[in-house]
Write a structure and sequence with these properties.
three-stranded antiparallel sheet
Length: 337
């Protein structure tokens, strides 16, 4: 079984990565930085509707600072969602700012509300970590999902990814009237996407299930929501969601509904789709040119993972890789034939 035993290191952004972010409109000057939100006076535990502790805390700022902070957050939201069109700010207000104290980088979550119709949205403010940024951008370019995020100095802004949290889905939906074959198929494809691009730690708390009604049935899509473990750990099982015990209920469902032949078919389908996305996005080559030079994991992790991938694929080229970026690039290059 896969398990992450230690928190990973946080890696600063190298200049070529910042240049990539500027080139592709990921970097903007922000009115607030992560460090500004650390100046709160107090916090209270956030309790959900079932009176359970969410493990988030709502922060309270000095009264004299609240207006400036809320205005800055609304400007950030306008940049993230509307390309900086500040007219969207007129009918928005900040309802709550939460901090996750148990998270690897202690992220903030902002709840922003439309006062005309009470519709709400979230976005996140985090410390910028190179691993996470590579993960976000690879997800945007190579998966069926698009992701909005912004970077300025050491601050990262991320949009909220909508879906039912994987652990909640397993508890509340898995025994309902679901289409078992469609869900199992999507898990196979999700597993393949993670392994090909080396996105790790995809246990049930780190992905959501997007449920979409179709005219005859219901479709499911698994979406990663945590990218801290992009190309860091030195064991291949960490990059394969099938090896996390938290995912066993979905895995067992697949064992009972899919044959080895259909699993192989879905794996080939997903590899083909990733290959097409790679060919259609010039950004991928630009990103990988930066990533192959960046140090985003200890040398021993790169060496160990290279050995395991060489054994798995029976491809000795993995043994010559010196960085995680080189391992990712070779894994993707193998799809291109």
């Amino acid at each position: 079984m896969a398990r992450i035993s230690k928190k990973k290191n946080v890696y600063t952004l190298i200049d070529p990565l910042r240049e990539y972010l500027r080139t592709y409109d990921r970097e903007y000057r922000l009115p607030l930085l992560y460090e500004d939100l650390l100046e709160y006076d107090d916090s209270v535990a956030l309790i959900d509707k079932d009176m359970e502790d969410t493990l988030w805390e709502t922060v309270i700022f000095p009264q004299l600072e609240v207006n400036n902070i809320h205005q800055g957050l609304k400007k950030i939201y306008a940049l993230l969602r509307a390309g900086g069109d500040l007219s969207v700010m007129d009918h928005l207000f900040i309802e709550r700012i939460d901090i996750c104290l148990y998270g690897n980088t202690r992220p903030f979550r902002v709840r922003i509300v439309n006062k005309i119709n009470d519709n709400f949205d979230y976005f996140y403010i985090k410390k910028a970590d190179a691993s996470r940024i590579y993960g976000l951008e690879l997800e945007h370019l190579l998966s069926p999902n698009r992701i909005s995020f912004l970077v300025h100095q050491e601050t990262l802004i991320e949009e909220h990814i909508i879906g039912v949290p994987g652990d909640m889905f397993i508890k509340q939906y898995l025994n309902d009237r679901i289409n078992k074959v469609r869900l199992a198929k999507e898990f196979v494809k999700f597993n393949e996407r993670c392994f090909v691009r080396l996105l790790g730690d995809m246990h049930a708390s780190n992905f959501v299930v997007d449920i979409t009604p179709d005219f005859e049935e219901v479709s499911y899509r698994l979406r990663a929501i945590d990218f801290d473990q992009q190309s860091y750990e030195g064991r291949k099982v960490v990059y394969m969601p099938q090896y996390f015990k938290e995912n066993n209920p979905i895995i067992n469902l697949g064992i009972g509904t899919l044959t080895p032949e259909t699993v192989l078919q879905y794996q080939k389908e997903e590899r083909s789709l990733i290959s097409r996305r790679y060919k259609a996005n010039a950004n991928v080559d630009d990103l990988l040119r930066v990533m192959v030079t960046d140090i985003i994991a200890p040398e021993k992790n790169v060496r160990n993972l290279g050995q395991e991938l060489a054994d798995h694929h029976k491809d000795g080229r993995f043994l010559g890789c010196k960085t995680m970026g080189q391992l990712v690039k070779l894994s993707l290059d193998r799809l291109m034939g």
